[in-house]
Amino acid sequence: MSPTVFYHRNYRFFFFSREESRMHIHIYSPSGEAKFWIEPQIELAVSKGLNSRELKEVETQVKEHENEIRREWNKHFGNT
User: Fold this and answer.
1) Can you list the residues of the chain whose pLDDT is less than 50?
2) CA distances from 62 to 32, 33, 45, 58 (A)
3) pLDDT confidence of residue 12
4) DSSP string, 12-69
5) Contact 25/15 with Cβ under 8 angstroms?
6) Measured at the alpha carbon of residue 24, what is the angle toward residues 78 and 65, in degrees to the nearest 5?
7) Sign of CA dihedral 75, 5, 34, 61
8) What letter would DSSP give residue 80?
9) What was the pLDDT predicted at 1?
10) What pLDDT does 73 receive?
Protein backbone atom coordinates (compact mmCIF):
# COMPACT_ATOMS: atom_id res chain seq x y z
CA MET A 1 0.00 0.00 0.00
CA SER A 2 1.28 3.46 -0.83
CA PRO A 3 -1.00 6.18 0.53
CA THR A 4 -1.17 9.45 -1.37
CA VAL A 5 -0.72 12.56 0.75
CA PHE A 6 -1.60 15.07 -1.99
CA TYR A 7 -1.38 15.88 -5.69
CA HIS A 8 0.08 18.98 -7.31
CA ARG A 9 -0.32 19.27 -11.08
CA ASN A 10 1.04 15.99 -12.50
CA TYR A 11 2.90 15.13 -9.29
CA ARG A 12 1.76 12.55 -6.77
CA PHE A 13 3.21 12.90 -3.26
CA PHE A 14 3.08 9.64 -1.31
CA PHE A 15 4.89 7.12 0.86
CA PHE A 16 5.30 3.37 0.80
CA SER A 17 3.92 1.42 3.75
CA ARG A 18 6.92 -0.87 4.17
CA GLU A 19 9.96 1.31 4.13
CA GLU A 20 12.58 2.81 6.37
CA SER A 21 11.55 4.68 9.49
CA ARG A 22 13.21 8.02 8.66
CA MET A 23 10.46 10.41 7.61
CA HIS A 24 10.41 11.06 3.87
CA ILE A 25 8.08 11.56 0.91
CA HIS A 26 8.13 10.13 -2.61
CA ILE A 27 7.07 12.14 -5.64
CA TYR A 28 6.04 10.60 -8.94
CA SER A 29 5.16 12.22 -12.27
CA PRO A 30 5.13 10.99 -15.87
CA SER A 31 8.53 12.65 -16.40
CA GLY A 32 10.29 11.17 -13.37
CA GLU A 33 10.38 10.70 -9.64
CA ALA A 34 12.11 11.91 -6.50
CA LYS A 35 12.40 11.27 -2.79
CA PHE A 36 12.82 13.97 -0.16
CA TRP A 37 13.86 13.51 3.43
CA ILE A 38 11.62 15.38 5.86
CA GLU A 39 13.84 14.77 8.88
CA PRO A 40 16.07 16.10 10.20
CA GLN A 41 15.40 18.73 7.51
CA ILE A 42 13.85 18.81 4.06
CA GLU A 43 16.50 17.58 1.65
CA LEU A 44 16.56 15.81 -1.70
CA ALA A 45 17.49 12.15 -1.23
CA VAL A 46 17.33 10.94 -4.84
CA SER A 47 15.76 11.85 -8.17
CA LYS A 48 15.42 10.28 -11.59
CA GLY A 49 14.18 11.99 -14.74
CA LEU A 50 13.17 15.33 -13.21
CA ASN A 51 14.97 18.45 -14.38
CA SER A 52 16.14 21.22 -12.04
CA ARG A 53 12.97 23.29 -12.56
CA GLU A 54 10.76 20.32 -11.70
CA LEU A 55 12.87 19.48 -8.64
CA LYS A 56 12.58 23.07 -7.42
CA GLU A 57 8.81 22.95 -7.92
CA VAL A 58 8.36 19.72 -5.97
CA GLU A 59 10.73 20.87 -3.22
CA THR A 60 8.61 24.01 -2.84
CA GLN A 61 5.51 21.85 -2.53
CA VAL A 62 7.16 19.61 0.06
CA LYS A 63 8.06 22.70 2.12
CA GLU A 64 4.57 24.18 1.77
CA HIS A 65 2.94 20.88 2.79
CA GLU A 66 5.45 19.86 5.46
CA ASN A 67 2.91 19.89 8.31
CA GLU A 68 0.43 17.86 6.29
CA ILE A 69 3.15 15.35 5.33
CA ARG A 70 4.22 14.97 8.97
CA ARG A 71 0.62 14.57 10.14
CA GLU A 72 -0.17 11.93 7.50
CA TRP A 73 3.11 10.08 8.16
CA ASN A 74 2.36 9.90 11.88
CA LYS A 75 -1.22 8.83 11.24
CA HIS A 76 -0.18 6.11 8.78
CA PHE A 77 2.79 4.77 10.72
CA GLY A 78 1.17 5.09 14.15
CA ASN A 79 3.41 7.78 15.61
CA THR A 80 0.59 10.03 16.80
Assistant:
1) none
2) 16, 14, 13, 6
3) 98
4) EEE--SSS-SS-EEEEEETTEEEEEE-SSS-EEEEEES--HHHHHHHHHHHHHTHHHH
5) yes
6) 90
7) negative
8) -
9) 65
10) 94
